[in-house]
Amino acid sequence: MIDVRRAEGVAEILVNHPPVNALGRGVRAGLLHAISKADADPAVKAIVIRCEGRTFFAGADISEFGQPQVAPSLADIIVALEGAGKPVVAAIHGNALGGGLELALGCHYRIATKAARLGLPEVKLGILPGAGGTQRLPRLVGVPKALEMVVFGSPIDAVEAQNLGLVDAHVEDDSQLARRAQDFAGAVAARPLPAPVSRRQVMLEDAREDPEIFARFREVHARALKSLAAPNACISAIEAAVAGPFAEGLAFERELFLRLVATEESRALRHLFFAERTAAKIDDMPLDTPVLPIRRVGIVGAGTMGIGIAMNFLTAGVPVTLVEREQKPLDHGVALIRRNYEASAKKGRFSQEQIDAAMALLTPSLDMEALADCDLLIEAVFELMNVKKDIFRRFDTIAKPGAILASNTSYLDVNEMAAVTHRPESVVGMHYFSPANVMKLLEVVRGDQTSHMVLRTVMDLAKRLGKVAVISGVCHGFIGNRMLAKRQEQAMQLVIEGALPWEVDQVLLKFGLPMGPFQMTDLAGLDVGWTRENSTGSTLKEVLCEADRRGQKNGRGFYDYDEMRNRKPSPEVVAMIEAFRARLGVTSRQIAADEIRERLLYPLVNEGALILEEGIAQRASDIDLVWINGYGWPKQTGGPMHWADAIGHETVADGLCRWRSHFGSDFRVASAFQRALV
Ligand code: CAA
């Protein structure tokens, strides 16, 4: 795991702990031993610490969190580095993250490859850097930059790091690193030893003269920081670096770290870290399953979904052929893609060159035959089985052998679509969430006959596109929308019984979701699947549609909207709800927030457990990812399944029993919750 090579008076400590050289207990012990030995060896004039494999240390070993600390700690290693009587050089490639960067900050010098990324992303795990990062980083890069890097956890590249003084030199590529680090160490060995970072003060002086910088930072970022514990603790720790001596700041950082690592927020975020990495694994798939090359993608349908999907590929540099039946919607789709890019450019997300490059990859066409050279064909047309089947028949005749045929359906049976082709093994669902170029979730729907190769390719592609992909089996609504349906049903039922739409929404907003059930319905449109001819006025939604209350799109849904799309409760809707209740003979009652929350969320979680039992989802953490990335479930609770574990299955089971009479005759309690009741 740790090898020491000596040449020309420089000891190179080489660490090899795949996959990411996490600083677990074995690595820490080996490192400390090697550093102490090299420091004590009079023949060694300088020390280099370098890693093998794809990266420098990616941080502490996250799987060790929550377990008793085993010595030596990372802090012990950093003390040894700062106390070394000869210069220590960190030679960084890949990533120096979290504890990895903290270790590098303990070295006298840092040299990095141009592509390396350096950062303190601990906040994303609900903690703060626990080995002096909040104290040393501002001493090198100054308080404003340290606040940005620690509070938001975003890494920077080596060139920026060098401009900031965080690294001392950079090399063009990985192959030069060992040699350059050796030469660099040899050269600095002849100079006086620089002061350890912990003793430097100069970069703190501006903030010492302007202590209000912290209050201003909190104010400017109030919305992003919300009530989250970790980012707020990060600010306090950096504030301590400025306010007092290093040792006190370090002790304060440690205290905050220990407090944070025990929070439910951190447990939830660590759960999500591993959930994201596990989701890509397909339980029954051989590891050597090949990945098909995807050089061109064909998309049928230039509506909202089609253009969002197209943008996803164009942004990633994959050429797209976009097919529509008529010129007008095709032109409209292409114009919308350009407009969306330009709107993003105004926010600084794209340069004009990037927009031009993306648009140059787009080939609009009115001819399905243009899809013949595509490696992946995606239909994004109306959610009607017959229409979808027609498209799949066409795909089957047009697509080249081995091409992947995908449906963007949100509810329909992918097996039925596969059955109209002669190649069901090539058919898969790719359920994007709207807007498809923004939302991170992709449900990859595995049909009964979808081949391993197709699944592997789509999962790999999703990673390339920056999506979080989760495998779902075939069922109505797949993982996300099937669970959502249970929540929406209860939301409507609660209103019929006596709650008002905004009271229901408020409960979920307070829980941390970005919108409530009725805000979501207004956004999607109340008239999806509704026609005046077929309307019977038997549901509240139909009643609203009949009164031309169609949602945000016409400024009137469950809420009233102004031109800026600001919503306010609608007295007209209150009157309609009251009339509807009277028609049903319901005597309305006051409904407490606790009942609303339990009736919205417990059936949703129960449906998740059923989905798991039926094998539709591979694992509970996949379901959590669906809700975090597709519906904005609050990350700090780890997703619905993790949340249910945290509040206790007995609590959920009790709630399900308490409200069972409201859940309809076909309601089934999942065995996970039945067990909790025994
Ligand atoms: N601890 C334990 N395991 C880790 C890990 C870590 N810090 N970082 C990555 N891994 C594991 C992953 O779980 C994954 O395992 P499996 O193959 O078994 O699924 C494997 O390493 C590869 O990870 P990725 O799939 O993420 O690989 P990638 O090449 O896409 O990305 C990376 C590499 C950018 C380093 C990314 O893994 C990453 O961001 N890692 C976490 C970085 C981080 O948060 N560091 C801070 C840790 S906390 C800390 O250091 C506290 C402190 O102050 C002491």
Terminus-to-terminus distance: 49 Å
Q: Any ligands, ions or cofactors bound here, and which?
A: acetoacetyl-coenzyme A
Q: What is the radius of gyration computed over CA atoms, rounded to a whole number of angstroms? A: 29 Å
Strands of the largest sheet, in order across it? 12-11-10-13-14-15-16-17
Low-pLDDT sequence parts:
none
Strand content: 5-15%
Q: Based on the structure given, which CATH architecture of the largest domain is correct?
A: Alpha-Beta Complex
Coarse shape:
globular
What would the keywords be for this entry?
49% helix; binds acetoacetyl-coenzyme A; 2-enoyl-CoA Hydratase, Chain A, domain 1; Rossmann fold; 29 helices; 678 residues; 6-stranded mixed beta sheet; alpha/beta; globular; N-(1-d-carboxylethyl)-l-norvaline Dehydrogenase, domain 2; 19 strands; single chain; 8-stranded mixed beta sheet
Short structural description:
With 678 residues, the chain is of the alpha/beta class.
What does the model show?
It is built from 29 helices and 19 strands. 49% of the residues lie in helices and 12% in strands. The strands form 4 sheets. Strands 12-11-10-13-14-15-16-17 form an 8-stranded mixed beta sheet, sandwiched between helices. The two termini are 49 Å apart. Helix 27 crosses helix 28 (649-659). The longest helix has 21 residues, at 593-613. The protein is of the alpha/beta class. The protein folds into 4 domains: 2-261, 2-enoyl-CoA Hydratase, Chain A, domain 1; 297-479, NAD(P)-binding Rossmann-like Domain (Rossmann fold), CATH 3.40.50.720; 499-503 and 521-578, Orthogonal Bundle (N-(1-d-carboxylethyl)-l-norvaline Dehydrogenase, domain 2), CATH 1.10.1040; 593-677, N-(1-d-carboxylethyl)-l-norvaline Dehydrogenase, domain 2 (Orthogonal Bundle). The model has no long low-confidence stretch (mean pLDDT 95). Bound molecules: acetoacetyl-coenzyme A. Residues 19-20, 22, 55, 58-63, 74, 95, 97-99, 102, 121-122, 125, 129-131, 274, 277 line the site of acetoacetyl-coenzyme A.
